[in-house]
Amino acid sequence: MAKSYSAALAASGGRAPYQWSVAAGQLPAGVSLSSSGALTGSPQQAGTYAFQAAVKDAAGAKAQRTLSVSVAQTQASQTPPPTLDTYGGVVGLAAPGGATGYFRVAKVGSRWVFVDPLGNEFWMLGVYDVDASNAPDGLPGTSYYDRVLAKYGGIAEWGVQAARRLKAWGFNTAGEYSSAYVGAVDQFATRNTTAPIPSIGMIRPNYYSLIDSGNYAPGPVKDLMNGLDGNYHNYAGDPVADIYDPNYTAYVDGSVAAMSPPAVANSPWIIGTTVEDADDLWGFGPGPDQPTLPAGHATSNLGWIVLCTNFQQIANTKYGEAYTDTKVYTKYALQAFLEQKYNNSIAALDAAWGADYTTFGDAGGFGTGTGLLDEDGRDSWVGDDDISLSTATPAVRADLNAFMAQYVQKFFQIVTAALRKYQPNHLIFGPATLNARRGIADAAEPAPWL
Fold first, then answer.
1. Which CATH number fits domain 5-71: 2.40.100.20, 3.40.50.720, 2.60.40.10, 3.40.718.10?
2. I want to staple 300 with a disulfide (CB 3.0 to 4.6 A). Which of 34, 250, 381, 386 is the partner?
């Protein structure tokens, strides 16, 4: 709203009364000069306005002078920005439950909100992958990492400045894949205590368990994709971990324990941990329920993969692993799931599926035998549509979707159990960059995420 303005022009040395006028130039819109010399009105636009003020006395003597009026921009009435606490929470918006010393969630009215360690509501504004990568960045003969070292002298010094920049730009979280030197802490040492920023950690057991990175399990876990044969025609670049293998649970537990020393487990600056990346979760991604998905981007049905993978593996040349225990535990879990449903009657399963298996076990070998464990996708009741199961019989489709849900729940149970055990005060987030098919999302929903 424009403010009113008033000023009075005066002359001396002549005979009163004086008469005033504007001889040249321009007054601000909304302002006028009266004959008595009064400048009054409400300026409508900011700027500096120059004009010639002319005056004539009673004897007819005249004079002129250049004057100017400056109109400042009027600031609209605004609510002042909120006051933030140490962690970025909003002071004055105390959440139910008060301060706990850790990030958590709380329901305020009909919505869930993040709550920071001081008990204030927290709106997460994060940046993903804040890292001083050593990858080439388009400049010949150098990388971003090279220039970080040249400018800051060390990666730790860069991390402090990166966190400061993030906060200066209005961000309050270092997201997944961010350098430990930017975030608050990592599993090796306390980091960035100079300018800490709330951080999100990450675990990726579905890939690293396949090579037993860190030697956290008695042996490597198998990739179900490695056991598929020529009846599978979809993408095969991402793994599907044999999560029913005891080695998988051992690996998750050992790797989470290693990344959870007191500096991490007790840090108030860690918001939580993301479990896995979609690149290592083939079958968790989008499915046929997303019709706008570009061709070739739908992921396979996990139930189909389990049914059609080999029930044993000797080696995996992709990862350079040989197995002393050749059992593929997830396929045996499907076997047990179907035995329970059909009361250990293979005839009942055959009647429902339209199949002709002779046993729930192995009868002649994978790909050639007549047992359920020998299935490789060659049979008509299974069909060759590994995405939507449109060519499978209805009972096959229903049972494989049900086992898919069981597999998903098993995965989340294992990873959340380890995180609850070693980092009980931190939140747990779903997989990164995941656009899940409906059956996956439905199965994951009951999991104790937060």
1. 2.60.40.10
2. 386
